[in-house]
Amino acid sequence: MSQVPNVVSLEARNRQNATFVHNLNQFRDQHSRSDVRFLHYKEQMQRGVQGMRGNNFVSRKPLLYRALFPFALLCLVQQSCRPAVIETRGESMDASPALDGSIADATSDIARDTSGADTSFDIGPAPRPGECSEEGGVVVDGRAELMAALASASAGDVLVLRPGAYGALDLNRDFGTRALTLRSACPFEARFERVEQNHQDPTGGYRFIGVEIGTVELLRPTQRIAFIRSKIRFATLRNIQNIVFSECILDARGDLHVMRVQDVASLTIERSILTNAQEDLLAIAGASRDIQILYNVFWDTMPRNIPVPEDRCRYNHSDAIQTYGLRGVTPTQLVIRGNLILDDPANNDVRPADCTGQRLSMQGIFISDPQRDGYRDVLIEENLIHVGTPNAIYVWGSQRDVTIRNNTLKLWPGSDGGGIRVVERGGVQTHGIEVINNVCSDLRDDTVSRSTTRRFESNFDYEHRNEESEDYFANFFESAERTERWEDFLPKDSAPIRLGSRFGAQDLLRRLNTGEFTYLRAED
After folding, report:
1. Are strands 297-301 and 241-246 parallel, antiparallel or unpaired?
2. How far is it, in rounded angstroms, from Cα 264 to Cα 227?
3. In the beta sheet, which residues pair with residue 203?
4. How far apart are CA 97 and CA 136, in angstroms?
């Protein structure tokens, strides 16, 4: 895990890039494709930016958004082709036959499971890393013993796995709210090639602690699954509910994605690390709801130029967190709080000169491609984001109770990154959105309808180009260089955004600065 920086240690700048190069060479030929997706728009705009410093300051600095290239929009045909129903990414997320029938079937499955089962699920205490221990359960040595133990296990049992390879595990029973626990006797030394559920009958009630898993594939009705202090390479979750990832390291090791989520109810990802994908670290689609993304580190993607004969400018688009509607339904009830989102420009390709010539960058939080219902009940707060794209936080399709508040955004030096952008497209007007108390390089209100239910106020919009300006961002942050640590987001005591003001991720930075809270580190 040396490729994941210790985001708490001051030695993060000594991280080596050799692992990134190795992973790229290994996987580049295997993955010479990119999802068809609506992302960048060919625009060149110079317009006033609606932002505020203090109470009433409005910035008028222009920002030039260079063209990348437009993607085709696909219209989802149901009864008729409606401009408000746009689907542009369904192919990649919906490739495997996980859901049969219509989206109504999928949502009714989730509703039925939620209403018919006790969804309370205590994941219990997670042992801290340390010496090996075989206490507290039935000791299992090898795959044959594990299969025998699983056949006779009861709810609440604990199986302690000695170091070794345990192959693929098929989740084929339901242990209810008193989960069956599978714990590695030595941290990360019990290894599963795959953990999967492909049965029609609902299964669930499993806890995995301290194990290492190649891929997690939960594609049929599954509930009450927890992964605690475990290492996972890739996870696909679909048509399931009540899933927890707590203090996990999810490392794609150069593959395309880290976690793909579709039609999932009640998912919590907390204090984990998601890293090393060519494209999305976390993608959430369709009828997903009640998603909690709390205090994680989203560390680095490696987008590449992947030209093909029909499109020599094709490339990996990457996001830390990406959401989009699918088959008529948009994700809802999303909380994205306290996350540290960092992208290292050193391992991102530069576009060819005739394809804009810009360095590719991971977008931060990209809430996009709504279906006809739009986004409702979304909270984005107290996040620390450092990327090279103007779309550090991007929202398209707000309909009700969407709030972006108290986030601190920094940018790659010399880039146009660190911006917040709210847009209207595809006939979906913007309603019910608040953008307040954020620190950013740019605030773009690209809406047309100018709904009276949108509120943009009290955001601190700093200058990021003119070093002679008193509003230049280096005057406000302790560190103006490339950011690799949470400490680099700390404001100067003399700055208007200082701790104790109302601007930016005040509560999170205070807790980090006092040691009350720390992010998960790769060596934990």
Report:
1. unpaired
2. 16
3. 222
4. 39
Are 194 and 214 in contact, with CB atoms under 8 Å apart?
yes
CA distance 151 to 165: 19
Q: Does the pTM of the predicted model rise above 0.85?
A: no
Strands 75-77 and 81-86, how do they pair?
antiparallel
Q: How many residues does the chain have?
A: 524
Contact 239, 219 (CB under 8 A): yes
Which residue in this structure is represented by tokens 């006033």?
48
Q: What is the dihedral of CA 393, 398, 401, 403, to 10 degrees?
A: 10
Ordered per-residue pLDDT tens for the chain, 524 residues: 334 544 433 233 233 333 323 333 332 233 322 222 322 222 222 222 223 223 223 332 333 333 333 333 333 323 322 222 222 333 334 433 232 223 333 333 333 333 333 444 555 555 555 678 898 899 999 999 999 999 999 999 999 999 999 999 999 999 988 899 999 999 999 999 999 987 778 888 999 999 999 999 998 888 999 999 999 999 999 999 999 999 999 999 988 889 999 999 999 999 999 999 888 999 999 999 999 999 999 998 887 888 888 888 887 788 999 999 999 999 999 999 999 999 888 887 787 888 887 887 888 999 999 998 899 999 999 999 998 888 999 999 999 999 999 999 998 877 778 899 999 888 788 889 999 999 999 898 888 776 667 889 999 999 888 888 888 888 999 887 767 789 999 999 999 999 999 999 999 999 999 999 999 987 76
Question: Counting Cβ atoms within 10 Å, is residue 228 exposed (0-12), middle (13-18) or buried (19+)?
Answer: buried
Is 326 in a helix, a strand, or coil?
strand
Q: How many CA atoms lie within 13 A of 405 on its CB side?
A: 14
Q: At 160, list the tokens.
A: 């302690």
Torsion angle defined by CA atoms of residues 146, 149, 153 and 155, in that order, rounded to the nearest 10 degrees: -40
How many CB atoms sit inside 10 A of residue 466's CB? 10
Scanning the structure block, which residue is given the tokens 């209207």?
Answer: 424
Torsional class of 318: left (φ above 0), alpha (ψ -120 to 50), beta (otherwise): beta
Distance CA 489, CA 484 (A): 10
